[in-house]
Amino acid sequence: MAQLIDLRDAPYREVLELQRDIFNRRVELRRNGQDTGDDVILTVEHQPVYTLGRHADPRNVVHRQWLLAHGAEVVEIDRGGDVTFHGPGQLVVYPIVDLQRCGLGVKNYVHLLEETVILTLADYGIESGRVEGATGVWLGIGTPTERKICAIGIRCSRFIAMHGLALNINTDLSWFSAINPCGFTDKGVTTLYQEMLSRSVHQGYDYNLPSLDEVAQSLRIRLANLLGLK
Question: For the whole prediction, is pTM greater than 0.85?
Answer without folding.
Answer: yes
